[in-house]
């Protein structure tokens, strides 16, 4: 029945206010985060959201700032959905979903002001940090945006940058690898995704199957103060103001859970 009439199969569960995997409509899958797992990166994190597994590595390089923003560095996010993570993706150049996810992450960084690009500048007009944030999906089971945003935040909180100075006489940069500083994270944006069923029912943290059956999805990004950073709604069924407000309220609650989880992990790995 599930194979022949998947939507009808789901509706039977939704009528009982539960889902085939046993979760309630407003329940998230088990979430875990592991920080600092890639030793070759300046910062990294592995996030699991149910079966969806995403790893983010941040690589920092030095470059000259752009002429029109001499006091700013760069953040370059890239989301990869390789064929190994799901049969729905093919090898080769990034597909539509990967491009949309990369754009979503870029918007989150920009809108939330999680890192002030001025903080990445070392010498005005001469030298700045470029942070390459590679987010790679290892196992795809829906809700890639939440997992990617979470992995990015956790990886950036793990980043340690060496101390760099520019020698006034020679104009060359001098890197001190012994002295490392963490990034200044000004805001902690957290994404919360919902799938809309039959234009009325909202379920959080949809699996890949639920995303395929849904009539629409919406992702709400909030920051520490409960402010809205962005609403990502790629088409699908419209949402009423009341439903959207409901999503925002749930997103604020989810933000607190995620923040608590990150803080706990960071505390546990800090040298005593």
Order of helices and strands: HEEEEHEEHEEEEHEEH
CATH class: Alpha Beta
Look up the CATH topology.
Answer: Ribosomal Protein S5, domain 2
Radius of gyration from CA coordinates: 20 Å
Which structural class do the helices and strands define?
alpha+beta
How many DSSP E strands?
12
Strand portion: 25-35%
Strand count, sense and closure of the main sheet? 6 strands, mixed
Q: What is the count of distinct domains?
A: 1
Mean pLDDT: 89
Q: Name the CATH architecture.
A: 2-Layer Sandwich
Regions with pLDDT < 50 over 5+ consecutive residues? none
* Separation of the first and last Cα atoms: 55 Å
Instruction: Name the CATH homologous superfamily.
Output: GHMP Kinase, N-terminal domain
Amount of helix: 25-40%
Tally of individual helices:
5
Apparent shape: elongated
Précis, in short:
With 272 residues, the chain is an alpha+beta fold. The protein is built from five helices and twelve strands. This is Exosome complex component RRP43.
Structure, explained:
This protein has helices at residues 6-15, 96-112, 144-158, 208-213, 241-269, and strands at residues 31-35, 43-49, 52-63, 74-80, 121-123, 127-139, 160-166, 173-182, 190-197, 201-204, 216-222, 228-232. The chain is of the alpha+beta class. It has a single domain, classed as Ribosomal Protein S5, domain 2. Strand 9 (190-197) and strand 10 form a beta hairpin. The longest helix is centred in the C-terminal third of the chain and has 29 residues, at 241-269. It is elongated. Residues 27-162, 189-252 form the Exoribonuclease phosphorolytic domain. Belongs to the RNase PH family. This is Exosome complex component RRP43.
């Amino acid at each position: 029945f599930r194979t022949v009439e998947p939507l009808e199969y789901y509706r039977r569960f939704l009528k009982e206010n539960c889902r085939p995997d046993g979760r309630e409509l407003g329940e998230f899958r088990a979430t875990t985060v592991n920080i600092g797992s890639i030793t070759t990166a300046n910062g990294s994190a592995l996030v699991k959201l149910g079966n969806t597994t995403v790893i983010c590595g941040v690589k920092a390089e030095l470059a000259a700032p752009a002429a029109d923003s001499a006091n700013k560095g760069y953040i370059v996010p890239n989301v990869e959905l390789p064929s190994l993570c799901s049969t729905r993706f093919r090898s080769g150049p990034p597909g539509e979903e990967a491009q949309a996810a990369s754009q979503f992450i870029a918007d989150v960084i920009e809108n939330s002001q999680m890192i002030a690009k001025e903080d990445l500048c070392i010498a005005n007009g001469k030298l700045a940090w470029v942070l390459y944030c590679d987010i790679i999906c290892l196992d795809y089971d829906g809700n890639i945006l939440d997992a990617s945003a979470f992995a990015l935040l956790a990886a950036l909180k793990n980043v340690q940058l060496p101390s760099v100075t520019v020698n006034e006489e020679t104009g060359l940069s001098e890197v001190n690898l012994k002295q490392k500083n963490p990034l200044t994270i000004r805001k902690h944006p957290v994404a919360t995704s919902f799938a809309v069923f039959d234009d009325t029912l909202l379920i959080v943290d949809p699996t890949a199957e639920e995303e395929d059956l849904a009539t629409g999805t919406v992702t709400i990004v909030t920051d520490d103060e409960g402010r809205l950073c962005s609403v990502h709604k790629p088409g699908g069924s419209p949402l009423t103001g009341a439903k959207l407000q409901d999503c925002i309220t749930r997103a604020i609650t989810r933000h607190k859970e995620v923040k608590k989880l990150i803080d706990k992990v960071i505390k546990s790995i800090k040298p005593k």
